[in-house]
Specification:
Layout: H1 3-15, E1 22-26, H2 35-46, E2 50-56, E3 64-67, E4 70-75, H3 102-134, E5 140-143, H4 146-159, E6 162-167, H5 182-198, E7 201-204, H6 207-217, E8 223-224, H7 248-253, E9 260-265, H8 274-281, E10 287-292, H9 298-306, E11 314-318, H10 325-329, E12 334-337, H11 344-347, H12 352-359, E13 364-367, H13 373-379, E14 382-385, H14 390-401, H15 405-421, H16 425-439
Parallel strand pairs: 1-2, 1-5, 2-4, 5-6, 6-7, 7-8, 9-10, 9-12, 10-11, 12-13, 13-14
Antiparallel strand pairs: 3-4
Helix pairs in contact: 2-16, 3-4, 4-5, 8-14, 12-15
């Protein structure tokens, strides 16, 4: 059925619906530091939708919470076929031919990956059944990844409603998935393509992602909703008073007031340039690096940093709740994001932390890559660098923190102005609400 015809029918149904539409946002994490899901939930809630974020349960976390304009329900992810051995996903830098012998490699990439795929499918179906047993129906099931897209489509089949796919990444070209053997990656792509083509709307985070996803998914992307920062006093002109650094990190780590803070905030994992940052900070005098966030490699990077001669200048702050990101970011002199060009997803990535930094007037050091370079160049919000070269990362950091005071103020003002004029979540949320309006909910 043509999309326009489906939308007309949905609007007709919506016209006779008296209660506000109910929206479930399905995420494959514990909803401790998922800024995009949080902003989407709050914006939809403020617009009148009844929003529930359905997340993974973790130790010490509440199963149900009432937050700003939305609910959170955390459900334990089932452990399926854990007894059946299978290889882990490939790591960054792994030789695609493998380090093992030919027979072992073939077994890993055939039987082993088959077991891995079977475990994923069984887990996804089991988790969907658990969710279905613990929630009532929703009018919209919004999925944040290919894993939760599978659940959204299944839950629509069970309860009815519509599916919105918010594709935060190019999943088949992201992280460890990008390093799967070609045939398995093609299977993943076909799986995502089949699900996405059945979705009622597809949203993504940047124009480059939209172009790539339209080719991969074989369908149009309905809207680009940049993962921008919430900007306070959006209608007021930026002033110099706003760009003074807060002392949060200085107090947290007992640092002197003249110490410069270089902030990395986000997922702590391979491919994000943390090793390069560790090396770069060693040659930037009077600067401390703060790693704020969490991820699968958090403890490993802590161990690496603790063994370095300049370990006293590298600090780990742990995960930052989405509602506190702005205040913590405001305490930095530079926000560093040397994302590595190791996957297609990373090369065209536009990190959330870029918009978070701009939103509070903190200049950035960012990778000279096609996803992020155009925005940094357009807004003049920082310095670009070769993310693979620690010396060039250090050069870009010094260019900001060693600039004259008035130049630094002017740079921070450019960040605030760009965020207010275009790159704010308030502007982007209008696009998300337009998608829901077009769907007739």
């Amino acid at each position: 059925m043509p999309l326009t015809t489906r939308r007309r029918r949905r609007r007709a149904k919506a016209a006779v619906r008296h209660a506000p539409a109910r929206v479930a946002i399905l995420i494959n994490n514990t909803y401790v530091a998922d800024a995009r899901a949080w902003k989407s939930a709050v914006s939809l809630g403020r617009a009148g939708y009844h929003v529930t974020v359905i997340a993974r349960w973790g130790p010490g976390l509440a199963t149900t919470e009432q937050l700003d304009h939305h609910m959170v329900t955390r459900i334990r992810q089932p452990e399926v076929l854990r007894w059946l051995p299978s290889p882990s996903l490939p790591e960054t830098g792994d030789d695609p031919r493998g380090r093992t012998g030919g027979l072992r490699r073939r077994l890993r990439d055939t039987l082993g990956r088959g077991v891995q795929a079977l475990r994923y499918l069984r887990m996804s179906r089991a988790w969907t059944r658990v969710i279905a047993s613990q929630v009532e129906g929703f009018d919209v099931w919004q999925a944040e990844s290919v894993i939760t897209l599978s659940q959204a489509v299944a839950l629509r089949r069970h309860f009815g409603g519509l599916v919105v796919y918010d594709a935060n990444d190019i999943d088949s070209e992201a992280g460890r998935m990008a390093r799967l053997p070609g045939p398995w990656k093609q299977l993943l792509r076909r799986h995502e393509r089949r699900l996405a083509r059945s979705a009622d709307a597809v949203v993504t985070v940047s124009d480059p992602y939209a172009q790539i996803l339209q080719r991969i998914l074989g369908r149009p992307v309905d809207a680009v909703v940049r993962n921008a920062a919430v900007v306070e006093d959006l209608e007021q002109e930026a002033t110099a008073d706003e760009v003074e650094r807060s002392d949060r990190f200085l107090r947290r780590f007992g640092l002197a007031s003249d110490q410069r803070i270089v902030l990395y905030i986000g997922q702590v994992m391979r491919g994000r340039g943390l090793r390069q940052l560790f090396e770069a900070i060693s040659v930037v005098d009077d600067a401390h690096l703060v790693v704020a966030g969490f991820g699968p490699d958090y403890e490993r990077y802590q161990t690496i940093a603790s063994a370095l001669p300049h370990s006293s200048r590298i600090h780990f702050a742990g995960a930052v709740p989405p509602a506190e990101i702005a205040e913590w970011t405001r305490g930095a002199d530079v926000a560093a994001m040397p994302v590595q060009p190791d996957t297609l997803n990373h090369r065209f990535n536009t990190p959330t932390k870029l918009y978070d930094a701009m939103g509070v007037g903190v200049p950035v050091v960012a990778s000279k890559l096609p996803g992020i370079s155009p925005i940094v160049t357009e807004t003049g919000c920082g310095e670009l660098c070769d993310p693979t070269d620690p010396a060039d990362v250090a050069r870009a950091i010094r260019a900001i923190i060693e600039a004259p005071h008035q130049d630094r103020i002017a740079l921070r003002m450019r960040c605030l102005t760009a965020a207010r004029e275009k790159y704010s979540w308030q502007h982007q949320a209008r696009e998300l609400l337009r998608v829901y309006d077009d769907l007739g909910v």
